[in-house]
What we know:
The protein is an alpha+beta fold and 142 residues long. The protein has one domain (3-114): Aminopeptidase (3-Layer(aba) Sandwich). It has 5 helices and 5 strands; from the N terminus they run βαααβββαβα. It has helices at residues 11-16, 18-24, 30-44, 91-105, 120-128, and strands spanning 3-7, 46-53, 56-68, 72-82, 110-113. The protein has a 5-stranded mixed β-sheet. A hairpin with a 2-residue loop joins strand 2 and strand 3 (56-68). The longest helix has 15 residues, at 30-44. The N and C termini lie far apart (46 Å).
Amino acid sequence: xxxxxxxxxxDTQIAETFEVMHQLRPNLTLDGYxxxxxxxxxxxxxxxxxxxxxxxxxxxxxxxxxxxLYCGRILSVDDLVVDERVRSHGHGARMLDWLAESGRLxxxxxxxxxxxxxxxxxxxxxxxxxxxxxxxxxxVEL
Length: 142
């Protein structure tokens, strides 16, 4: 089955990513998902990429291009999730490679990704694909 990665640009494409994104972000509801993604796209330069196998969405990545004083232009990955039913089939690796190449084409110096400390399986995946822990990310609820 043909596999392709593209940026979601229509409401239909965005909605089709919900089931997979919901596996990573269970706090989201289908009712507000498209509106929230559209809001991020219009104010935060957010992009939503998806890997489809035929008509089935297999992986989703939310990302943005940013400028940081300490490192210059970066591709920052907010969300990266592969459908739990097809993990370990290479979809995540293909999406990560696509993100890195997209960053290179956009003149980025690096790709960054924040992952909660409890996501050990995801961390093993990132390490296998050449990513390392470079800093701490501190947060506090307000």
